[in-house]
Amino acid sequence: MHLSVIVPAYNEEKKLPITLREISDYLRKQNFESEIVVVSDGSKDKTVEVAKSLISEIKNSRVIEFKENRGKGFGVKEGMMGALGDFRLFTDADNSTPISQIEKMWPWFPASAKGYGGKGYDIVIGSRDLKGAILDPPQPPFRRFTGEIFKYLRKIVVGLWEIEDSQCGFKCFTKRAAEDIFPKCKINRFAFDPEILLVAKKSGYKIKEIPIYWKNDLQSRVKLKSMVKMLLDLFKIRLNEIKGYYD
């Protein structure tokens, strides 16, 4: 199995069919074996039913279901650990970044039997903040402001000064990196991304950040309560590092 695409989903019954069909249509045209793994994290709507109804239509797809909502980080972790691919990508259920953007990632990975890669990176992450990234449409000023504040605090508290966008939901890992990194992770909700990258860095994995296309949902909102929890999680990550949990 060359590629696993992990799609964490919470109450995504409306957006999921379009996303899964677009991913499937793209993967069917490739010359490698792949799978799609949907992880429903305690969805209260018909996310699970919708995903399962598409299994007969979409080749090599499966659903991992959890009754309790544990957070996006938990869903990604479980999907990564349950995946079979030599490369493991997680992407958002709203299809913010088209699956075709993975073509920008392949050259940065170690060389594979399929002829992909060659530059030797273990993890390649999409970025909305690097030069060359396209945000369609651009983020509203307040959203940009809060994002910059979080980025600054993340760099101060956790580090990772070389990473501009830790929160983009389009990240790909080699099998070896995924199976080493994710069992060490403790954060289950939206601050899980900095933890993943910190664990990867401490474990000696090479990370490449590249600009990507991002379809911006202007209806999307980050609640103040969620922002506070994310900031608290940054301090949890720092404390975990001090305690040696990531060694």
TrEMBL record:
It is an enzyme of class 2 (transferase). Pfam families: Glycos_transf_2 (PF00535). Its main location: endoplasmic reticulum. This is dolichyl-phosphate beta-glucosyltransferase. It is a single-pass membrane protein. InterPro entries: DPG_synthase (IPR035518), Glyco_trans_2-like (IPR001173), Nucleotide-diphossugar_trans (IPR029044). Residues 4-182 form the Glycosyltransferase 2-like domain. It catalyses: a di-trans,poly-cis-dolichyl phosphate + UDP-alpha-D-glucose = a di-trans,poly-cis-dolichyl beta-D-glucosyl phosphate + UDP. Its EC number is 2.4.1.117. Keywords: Endoplasmic reticulum, Glycosyltransferase, Membrane, Signal-anchor, Transferase, Transmembrane, Transmembrane helix. The lineage of its organism: Bacteria, Candidatus Nealsoniibacteriota. Belongs to the glycosyltransferase 2 family. It is found in: Endoplasmic reticulum membrane.
